[in-house]
Amino acid sequence: MQLKDKIQNDMISALKERKEIEGSVLKMLRASVINAEIKQNKKDEGLTDDEIIKIIKSEAKKRNDAIEAYTKGGRNELAQKEKEELAILKAYLPKELPDEEIEKIVKEAIIETKAESMEEFGNIMKEAMIKLKGQADGKRVSGVVKRLLGE
């Protein structure tokens, strides 16, 4: 089953079971996918699962940013709602690699780019993110690169 179909089926189930937050998050996600299909002129063939995962990651990033902003502003009830929405979105994303695997890939990227200082940070990140193929958040990878180059 394609990811778009899974989202659609889960949305219908959530709405039937009166799971308001899950239903609304999946409705929003489905609308984002449809809008992207229209924007990319792929209404007939649809988006690939990889393209849909990019949309989900974008939506998850919005939730993370909102959580941070609400927490700083002392709006814990709104931050909690965003955390619940984020948890629903994360269920549709591939599992992230553990830190040890990320570190191994970053070390390979450092060797391949022949980097020796923080000036090469962008090149290392580019190489590492290509190898990771969305299996790790950019902030985590960035932290590993900074730590390894700082050593």
Question: Your description of this structure?
Answer:
The chain is mostly helical and 151 residues long. It folds into 2 domains: 3-90, Uncharacterised protein YqeY/AIM41, N-terminal domain (Hypothetical Protein Yqey, Chain: A, domain1, Orthogonal Bundle); 99-150, Arc Repressor Mutant, subunit A (Orthogonal Bundle). Helix content is 75%, strand content 0%. The protein contains 7 helices and no strands. It has helices spanning 3-16, 20-39, 49-72, 76-90, 99-113, 121-132, 138-150. α5 packs across α7. It starts with a helix and ends with a helix.
CATH topology of the largest domain: Hypothetical Protein Yqey, Chain: A, domain1
Determine the fraction of residues in helical runs and give it as a percent range: over 70%
Strand fraction: under 5%
Radius of gyration of CA atoms, rounded to a whole number: 18 Å
Order of helices and strands: HHHHHHH
Q: What is the end-to-end distance?
A: 45 Å
- Give the structural class: mainly alpha
Question: How would you name the CATH homologous superfamily of the largest domain?
Answer: Uncharacterised protein YqeY/AIM41, N-terminal domain
Number of strands: 0
Q: What is the approximate shape?
A: globular
Number of domains: 2
Write the CATH architecture name of the largest domain: Orthogonal Bundle
Given this structure, which CATH class of the largest domain is correct?
Answer: Mainly Alpha
The major pleated sheet works out as: none
* Continuous helix count: 7
Q: Roughly what is the average pLDDT, rounded to an integer? A: 88
Low-confidence stretches: none
